[in-house]
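Incident review: delayed structure delivery

Summary: a single-chain prediction request sat in the queue longer than the usual turnaround. Root cause was a stuck worker, restarted by the on-call engineer. No data loss occurred. The affected request and its eventual output are reproduced below so the record is complete for anyone auditing the incident later.

Affected input:
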Amino acid sequence: MDAQARRLRWHCRRGLKELDVLLERYACAALPGASIEERRTLERLLERPDPELAGYLLAGVRPEDGELAALIERILACRGAP
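Output delivered after worker restart:
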């Protein structure tokens, strides 16, 4: 992973185990081949407060922002991966 990908992966550590597992699993799988736009979208998502992220990733709340909503779908698709 390049420096930016490692930094984004570090920011996936939120302190809430469920969020950490989902976000880090996605980061490991997607960041090495992610485009600049995908990385920017992940960065925007990681700027959100933990309760909002938990709503998106654990409670089924859908963000109004279409790019964030699509990213949430990709993250949730990774949850079954090893």
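Verification: The two ends are 19 Å apart (CA to CA).
Action items: add queue-age alerting; document worker restart procedure.
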